[in-house]
Predict the structure.
Amino acid sequence: MGIISLITGVIAPIFIIISPITSYADQTYSIHRNKSSAGFSLDIPLIMLVASILRVFYYPGARFDTSLLIQSFIMIAIQLLLLQVALEHRPGPSSKGGEAAIPFAGSREGEFRVSRPFNFWQWRSPKPYWQFLLYMFITLMACELILSPMPALYALYSTAIGYIGLSVEATLPLPQVISNYRSRSCKGFRVSVLVSWIAGDIMKMFWFFSATTEIPWAFKLCGIFQMCCDLFLGVQYWLYGEGETVIKDHNLGMGGQRTPSGMRTPVGEKDVRLG
């Protein structure tokens, strides 16, 4: 019983707090060291920044465990740094791997058609990224000041942004799931990232359902969904391994080669979502 209390009271909260650093510090350093963010999806900082900012504004109404609040602030800091480094070293679309730096670049064709209004989060200039985050913060701050004097309405608002934020975070593995499905390969996706995600999910689930402090059901439900996605990534890695990327004929550009199965493999690198 003492060991369980130690895990839920000390180890799990510390693990939760430092998880943004352990998960993304290596990715940030890798981009900075290589002077290129080719193969890295800018959707990752988008998802985590939106989710973490909404979680911070969710706290006054939910008063959940402070470890999760501290984690949110650390996540915002590390994702802002990651976004800055990724934008600074982003290759042009015409360069090798450049298209991979555009979110869901491979999802514009075939099974997963994605059309973003106003090229949202696909801008070539860095300025709109920071403007979007600033406008989002100002809007949430205004809503906080306007609605907080009205308890009944504020309770609904707080619950809504909490579920929205956590649902957004739960979609984090989806770009990689889509990429793996389209290419029938996990080449370029680090096993260390997958292991850290699944280990984090296990720790979170254990803590969410055993902690004595307040953990809203929004965290638990979205955590369960995210864990299912991460486990599905594990299944994909087991099925596909790190084999050559395969792209269907109608998606093929110049320079491909046909395989015996009627599929083609590109000469260049696979469009990966994580470095």
